[in-house]
Prior knowledge:
The chain is mainly α.
Amino acid sequence: MEAIADAVERETYYKTKVAELYANGKAVSIASVLEIDEVIDPAETRHWIMAGLRSVPKPAPRSHRKRPCIDAW
């Protein structure tokens, strides 16, 4: 902005850029609110959750007791 010599032109440029950022901010804000509902159909939610859970590897079998020592206190 320092390269723009005319004060009126600089102010116009500044206001244009601020308006662009506000418009972009509003779009990002509303996208974060509606993103999941728009991407995943609520009727398919169970399918997606189960697919995610099935993709996790099973833990290794336990080789020792679950609680080897229980403190009475």
